[in-house]
Structures are given as C-alpha cells and as structure tokens.
C-alpha cells in the first residue's frame, strides 16, 4: 500500500484541526464563567443543533443491514471473504459511550481537550 502524499496528510491535519478547534471554541464559550448567560444560551441555541445533527449523521450512516451487520463500516477481508462489523459497531458504541459519559473521551485521549 502506498503512503499518502504530504499534501494529503497536511489537508487531513487541517481538517482535524478545524473540527477540533470548532469543538474547543464551543466548549470554551459554554464553560467559561466570564461569558454571561445570554452568550451561553445563544451559543447553545446555535451550536447544539449542529452537534446533534453530526451525531445523528454518524448514527444514520452506521445502520444495520438485514443480517445485523453495520453498513457504515468498511468491510474487511478475513479468512478469504469480506466481513462487516456486527451492529452496534465500534462507532455507534463509542458515540453512545461519549453521549452518556462525555468525560470518558479524555480518559482515552487526554490530549483531546
């Protein structure tokens, strides 16, 4: 397998930085005590629907097929055949874990905050 080009790696890094920067900004605006309740409410009204839509989009893409396998996860080649992840797949399981316990992501990836 050929490694990705430096330009593509940089573009992917920029995409990740953009997404994590957005999340950090929302988190800061909501959590910082210097911002008044009006700012917090305004940010929540505008950004919570976006975040909910992002989670819904991931869940919609990772739905099960007739056999209980995830249609969103790429199949892998195992023992001479293509195999899909059983549903709920790791993506759905992690989303559910992080929705129920948001701080658990920082246990796995302390640098994420």
List the helices and strands and how they pair.
Blueprint: H1 6-31, H2 37-61, E1 76-78, E2 81-83, H3 90-100, H4 104-108
Antiparallel strand pairs: 1-2
**DSSP helix fraction:** 55-70%
User: Could you say which overall geometry the principal axes of the C-alpha atoms support?
Assistant: extended
Helix and strand element order: HHEEHH
Helix count, per DSSP? Answer: 4
Structural class: mainly alpha
Count of distinct structural domains? 2
Number of beta-strand segments: 2
Uncertain residue ranges: none
Task: Kindly describe this structure.
The protein contains four helices and two strands, in the order ααββαα. Helices cover 59% and strands 5% of the residues. Helix 1 packs across helix 2 (37-61). With 113 residues, the protein is mostly helical. It has two domains: 1-61; 63-107, no CATH class. It has helices spanning 6-31, 37-61, 90-100, 104-108; strands spanning 76-78, 81-83. A two-stranded antiparallel ribbon has the order 1-2. The mean pLDDT is 91.
